[in-house]
Design brief:
The structure holds 2 protein chains of 2 kinds. Helix content of chain A is 39%, strand content 8%. By secondary structure, chain A is mainly alpha-helical. The radius of gyration of chain A is 13 Å and the shape is globular. The chains are: A mainly alpha, B mainly beta.
Chain lengths: 61, 409
């Protein structure tokens, strides 16, 4: 899946009332913090350093 | 809860404007003060353009350059519980003759996630839901999400926008994801839209003084994306009845019943650079009465469009599209129409063809400029459709160019 396709899916959800788009954060650090502090949350980042408090699933292109 | 990294975004004074509007809209909902930030989401868009039509009344009766290409929208989503959500969107539109100028509610619904386990998910929407059946029906009213400023009018006819964009009633969406066979989406909706006096004059004619009403609309669609495929296929079916009640003795028209069945097939390919899409459709449109009490006709209209988009780079993408449509499959060139009306309605009102080229440039991930040019043949999709206006639309060939700047958050 290409990034533009993902954007389209979120746009469709957000602007048609069908669902809720992901919450936007400004930096990778903020994203990891948000995932840490929200039960059941998922986030995606390009690189992740040693993080013990979150589960990391690596996706290889 | 899902989090996403913000890409390059522009901040502009428009954000402030939107926050004010957002706040006003918010007051309409009763939001508990302690509601967590992620339970409430507010998004919106603003788009303004220039449109120049040469040879038809598509936007203005007198033609020429127009700023009637304005779209503002704001929506909110509020999570009541893990499986209940309120959502709504209000838009302001000005498109000249294309649709009614003003504010409308595109959707205002309660979303209940009735089932969400493993590969299956079921949602039930109650209220004013948004149509999600055709390829671009859920994005047709979102300037940056649809593929062009002006959509293929055979399927996404602007004169019908407010009726086709959604309905008051209930909708079911069922999703199934299979590792071997791919993703399936099934939608079923039932409802009706109210039709304002202005909309009825856009659709019928200024001379129709009576009331037109949509009695019901049932619609269903199935989408299938094979596993790991860049292709997606869809099929949809719509059944709807309308009635016209004459305005006593002043009205030129009689009581009438309109019945409308609309079927579409669509395909979409999304590659890294190339995107291809197409939709073919057929509508069966029965009119009983209206013109005179004994009138009874059921023309079968058919149409198709094919579209390709190419992403030159992250900012710039190109668009090319061809659309072909006729009002009656037994009168593709409109000659019978001209003969039946004694030449009052020229043959070119029987069809509509549109060749489009366009480009789209992203200044940021929430600021886009679109430019496009259309060459049209035929007046089959110019309003009012029921009582064509050959005096203003005196050309078989007409053209338009448009540019629109769009911002969203």
């Amino acid at each position: 899946m290409f990034p533009y396709q993902l954007d389209r899916i979120w746009n469709k959800l957000t602007y048609s009332g069908l669902g809720v788009a992901p919450i936007m954060v400004n930096s990778p650090e903020e994203l990891i913090n948000a995932v840490k502090e929200t039960p059941g949350a998922i986030g995606y980042v390009e690189n992740i350093k040693d993080e013990e408090t979150v589960n990391v699933v690596q996706i290889e292109a | 809860m899902l989090f996403k990294l913000k890409l390059k975004m522009v901040t502009m004074s428009m954000t402030k404007l939107f926050l004010i509007v957002a706040f006003t809209i918010f007051c309409l909902f009763i939001v508990p003060a302690e509601a967590a930030e992620q339970d409430i989401q507010i998004h919106g868009f603003a788009a303004q353009g220039l449109i120049d039509v040469n040879g038809s009344n598509f936007v203005d009766d007198d033609g020429g350059l127009s700023t009637k290409l304005t779209e503002f929208g704001i929506n909110g989503s509020y999570r009541l519980s893990p499986n209940l959500r309120l959502a709504g969107q209000v838009v302001y539109l000005n498109g000249g003759n294309r649709y009614e100028e003003g504010v409308r509610v595109d959707y205002a619904l309660l979303d209940w996630t009735a089932y969400d386990k493993g590969d299956w998910k079921a949602n039930i929407y109650v209220g004013r839901f948004k149509n999600n059946h055709w390829l671009y029906s859920s994005s047709r009213d979102i300037p940056f999400a649809r593929p062009s400023i002006i959509l293929p009018q055979s399927v996404y006819f602007d004169g019908f926008r407010d009726i086709a964009v959604g309905a008051d009633g209930a909708a079911i969406k069922l999703s199934y994801s299979d590792d071997n066979y791919g993703d399936f989406d099934f939608n079923l909706t039932y409802g009706a839209s109210s039709i304002s006096t202005k909309q009825s004059s856009i659709l019928l004619s200024d001379l129709a003084l009576g009331k037109v009403k949509q009695d019901f609309e049932t619609q269903t669609s199935i989408y299938w994306q094979p596993a790991f495929s860049s292709w997606r296929f869809g099929v949809s079916y719509l059944d709807s009845d309308f009635s016209y009640e004459t305005a006593a003795n002043l009205d030129l028209f009689f009581n009438g019943l309109f019945s409308f069945q609309f079927s579409t097939l669509n395909a979409l390919y999304e590659g890294e650079k190339w995107e291809l899409s197409g939709e073919i459709y057929q509508s069966v449109f029965t009119t009983k009465g209206f013109y005179h009490p004994a009138f009874d006709k059921t023309p079968v209209a058919q149409g198709m469009y094919m579209q390709s988009r190419y992403k030159l780079n992250d900012e710039l993408s190109l668009l090319a599209r061809y659309e072909y449509f006729y009002n009656d499959k037994n009168d593709k060139d409109g000659k019978k129409l001209a003969a039946e009306t004694g030449g009052l309605v020229p043959a070119y009102f029987g069809y509509h063809r549109d060749t489009t080229v366009g480009l789209s440039y992203d200044f940021a991930s929430n600021l886009r400029l679109r430019l496009e040019y259309h060459w049209f043949q035929g007046a089959g999709r110019l309003t009012p459709v029921v009582m064509p206006n050959p005096r203003i639309n005196s050309n078989e060939n007409w053209q338009l160019w448009a540019m629109q700047l769009m911002y969203w958050f």
